[in-house]
Description:
This protein is α/β, with parallel strands linked by helices and about 500 residues long. The protein has 12 helices and 21 strands. The chain is about 30% helix and about 25% strand. The protein is globular and about 80 Å long.
Amino acid sequence: MATSGIIGENRVNDPVTIVIFGASGDLTHRKLIPALYIAYAQDLLPEKFTIVGFARRDYDDETFRTMMADSIKEFSRLPTDDETVGRFVSHIRYHKGDISSMDAYDDLRTKFEDQEAYPENRLFYLSIIPSLFETAVRSLKESGLVVKPGGGPWTRVVIEKPFGRDLESALALNSELLRHLDESQVYRIDHYLGKETVQNILSFRFANAIFEPVFNRSYIDHIQITASETVGMEKGRGGYYDEYGAVRDMVTNHLLQLLCLVTMEAPGDLSAESIRNEKVKVLNATKLDIRKEISDAVFRGQYGGGTDGEGGRIKGYLEEDRIDPESNTESFVAMRLAINNWRWAGVPILLRTGKRMARKTTEVAVQFKVPPLQLFQQVECEDDVCDITRIKPNTLIFQIQPNEGIFLKVGTKRPGMRFVVEDVKMDFSYSGTWNKSLPEAYERLLLDTLHGDSTLFTRSDEVEAEWRVVQPILENLNALKPYTYPPNAWGMPEADWLFHGVEGAWRNK
Length: 509
Ligand SMILES: NC(=O)C1=CN([C@@H]2O[C@H](COP(=O)(O)OP(=O)(O)OC[C@H]3O[C@@H](n4cnc5c(N)ncnc54)[C@H](OP(=O)(O)O)[C@@H]3O)[C@@H](O)[C@H]2O)C=CC1
Ligand SMILES: O=C1O[C@H](COP(=O)(O)O)[C@@H](O)[C@H](O)[C@H]1O
């Protein structure tokens, strides 16, 4: 039984067959296979395991193995050696089939009769477009490839986000999943939860007694959560993205998960259920901070075209491949939320995420209130030009990526005759503390599924609560026409309005 997300580097003991649906796709070759390889190279996979790649393309075992070996060499986070890669890919097979055809499942079941080659514990990883989830799970059940838990060999199913398109479809998807599977068999993956720095939010808050007493409305002015990307529409993604957009692609999963971790109450223990119960409670208390109109609380944007500084042209969102030139889908969104509970009432929570922004960064910035008495003057210097300002508030920054770490901005006396204060950064950075590369999110999450630890996966009621938060946006898209923002910017100035009545502004760094 799973008791803790803190499994670390335990080897998986159960022999297992891992079936990856969508084996010829981008996620499989860039993330899943390299992550499994690293687990293998670190001796964390069981002695007996088989990986089956499932897709429609016409490969045989050998071609597929060669492709996967190439992917490992290209995308592995650690150096590879040919011998280990060769041994690893010898565990891989290819199964050609269409998810919508029962024959594909029947053929797989026939193969699985050879229990020596295909161990009976089974992990099905659905790395496919969301519209195929229900068909895949229903067919797996009907073909007898998954069985409800009951003490014998286990079956687990991993589902990639997005888990639906809105509240209604998320409810329908959950009910379909739970018609065929037990909740304990479903692993809804949100790769942000596999990031070391995201997990560290919980350790930082609840392993240290000094911060928790000030993590509330009495001391905190507001919280800003940013996930900005410099990329536009990556190759082959336009079709998917234009159908989903930034709210569904990033907010209903990654950003709301970050919000949960930084605002939830301490769980009674570290079991998956205790942590997820606390996340659901805080999500249920979270609402858009609408004063009069929804357009007070949400700003959507699309990047326009521009130049890249080297004479090249950057395409605007509406000019990208497989994007409807009249699309109303957002590539940027900023919103203001309120958490209606005792701890956070009145503390604005500001979220923003987008493509083609000025920098790739993901951070959670917790800004404290300004000191009650302005005893000192603050100095702020840039390029040797200094200004005198009001005392700045402290900010605690969880830097998720890049330059992973935790930083606290504090005012300190500037050396010299005058009694003035300047902001300095007290910092902890992973690279300066531990001289090793951080595990990729998928490495951790895949091992957790094999261990049966669902702590870092999203429960059905959590998913539903996430959709409830954004549902008013999805129902009012016409009132929230996207503004155009320039490429390589921090979004559009209109979104600054979200700071009304707040001591501060978006952190543009
Ligand atoms: N790529 C990424 O970085 C991320 C992806 N995700 C999620 O992961 C999932 C997969 O994404 P990604 O790999 O990018 O998608 P791709 O479009 O690259 O791959 C889709 C895969 O599904 C297979 N497929 C499609 N239809 C069928 C069918 N009827 N029967 C059998 N196989 C089928 C395709 O293979 P074939 O055509 O050979 O059948 C292909 O292998 C999605 O849910 C996405 O949202 C989540 C986070 C990041
Ligand atoms: O899930 C997704 O995440 C990526 C960003 O992930 P990160 O780990 O690089 O921050 C995003 O590009 C993509 O659109 C989305 O589907």
